[in-house]
Input
Amino acid sequence: MEEQNTNAMSYRYYSTERPINPGTFPTNRQRPVKIVNFGTRQNIGGIKAWGYLEYLKPLSDDVLMT
Output
């Protein structure tokens, strides 16, 4: 996942490997406040992504690696 801070209130993570479905993103410590699937892989600022998730706090490196 690629991280982008969209504003002071949320952190956006792009799903670059697969479409977003249950079990494909971390929810153990916090849940996303927004989930967006594009339907097809799209080029977003040089990143090819299937969609994105927004969280209120940044995810830790160990969560991102799982």
